[in-house]
UniProtKB/TrEMBL annotation:
Signal peptide: none
PROSITE patterns: ANK_REP_REGION, ANK_REPEAT
Keyword annotations of the record: ANK repeat, Repeat
Pfam families xrefs: Ank_2 (PF12796)
InterPro entries membership: Ankyrin_rpt, Ankyrin_rpt-contain_sf
SMART domains (UniProt xref): ANK
Protein name (record): Uncharacterized protein
Gene3D superfamilies the UniProt entry points to: Ankyrin repeat-containing domain
Biological process (GO), any one: protein K6-linked ubiquitination
GO function terms (MF aspect): ubiquitin-protein transferase activity
Superkingdom of the organism of origin: Eukaryota
ANK repeat boundaries on the chain: 7-39
Length: 107
């Protein structure tokens, strides 16, 4: 359940990036590593934030996704990914949910 593809992206990351909420839920139920890395967007939470997948963002946060570990990818925090994807409602949700929004890059 935690295997990665040639780009070292996890199944959870790929499902979140593509907006496949049922697959995300199933992988979480099977014990997928919620903070497993992805490629372009860093991890599942950042991919969902960039893609505008509000229900997936909520699901991941409810399962304690944090994106607090420095990662590769274009964005260094869920908030940065949401704003880059022009997903202001998700950015507001992140702020209201109290998600740790540390970043090591500048906007």
């Amino acid at each position: 359940v935690n295997q990665t593809n040639k780009d070292e992206s996890s199944g959870l990351y790929l499902a979140a990036r593509g907006g496949h909420i049922m697959v995300v839920q199933k992988l979480l139920d099977m014990g997928a590593n919620i903070d497993a890395p992805g490629f372009q967007y860093g991890d599942a939470l950042q991919a969902a934030c960039f893609g505008g997948w509000t229900e997936i963002v909520q699901l991941l946060i409810n399962h304690d996704a944090t994106s607090s570990v420095p990662r590769r990818g274009e964005y260094s925090s869920p908030l940065q990914a949401a704003l880059a994807g022009d997903n202001n409602p998700i950015a507001e949700y992140l702020l209201n949910a109290g998600v740790k929004l540390t970043t090591q890059q500048q906007f």
